[in-house]
Design brief:
CATH topology of the largest domain: DNA polymerase, domain 1
Structural class: alpha+beta
Strand content: 15-25%
Distance between the termini: 34 Å
Number of helices: 10
Radius of gyration: 17 Å
Helix content: 40-55%
CATH architecture of the largest domain: Orthogonal Bundle
Number of strands: 5
Strand order of the largest sheet: 3-2-1-4-5
Largest sheet: 5 strands, antiparallel
CATH superfamily of the largest domain: 5' to 3' exonuclease, C-terminal subdomain
Length: 197
């Protein structure tokens, strides 16, 4: 799996870009939130990526922050939301705006995103509630934590979800054991230790 790309930006054709990594050009689809933050063509760029293998294609999606990628991955797990719709959501709303929509149960704002109808918006509000709490560190209501703290916690939460824990359980474990300044690995170890006690 390709998790990160670092190289020179050689083409920008929204939503696709081309990144030269040691002579190999990677075509990457990015949301507009990432696209607007890209450097000029010819400048170095680093992206967190998500690699999708389908029967008819291999696709690479790129994100400026770990939080955006984590939200993209969480959106893919929602019934009826594919990569194009998830990319559209991240193009129409920032991660923070999406978190606030879910917290406020604001389906109207979600339906303004191209490709999101009323039913999909309602499904997103229901299915993303616990996931958003975990991704945003449980602090959507109080304002979001800073990027570094959020990145570490969201990575730990994602790892616990990959290990089979439900979003609510992962959040509960991290609420109980997570400490500012911990590495992702230490945060995961502490959470798993608390289960075995």
């Amino acid at each position: 799996m390709i998790g990160r790309l670092s190289g020179a930006l050689i083409e920008k054709n929204p939503p696709s870009i081309l990144v030269n990594v040691q002579g190999v050009g990677y075509e990457v689809d990015v949301p507009m939130s990432t696209f607007y933050g890209l450097p000029d063509v010819g400048e170095p760029v680093e992206l967190h990526t998500h690699f999708v293998v389908r029967e008819d294609a291999q696709l690479l999606f790129g994100f400026g922050t770990v939080r955006e990628r984590a939200l993209f991955r969480a959106l893919l797990k929602v019934n009826g939301v594919g990569a194009k719709v998830a990319l559209s959501i991240l193009s129409g709303l920032s991660a923070e705006e999406f978190f606030q929509c879910v917290a406020a149960k604001d389906a109207v704002t979600l339906t303004r995103v191209p490709g999101i109808g009323k039913k999909t918006a309602e499904r997103l509000l229901v299915e993303m509630q616990d996931k958003v709490d975990a991704l945003a560190g449980g602090s959507v209501q109080q304002g979001l934590p800073t990027e570094p703290a959020l990145s570490v916690r969201s990575q730990a939460s994602e790892a616990l979800l990959a290990l089979g824990y439900k979003a609510a359980e992962a959040k509960r474990l991290l609420d109980k054991t997570a400490v500012d300044g911990q590495s992702v690995e230490d945060m995961i170890r502490a959470a798993l230790r608390s289960v075995s006690k």
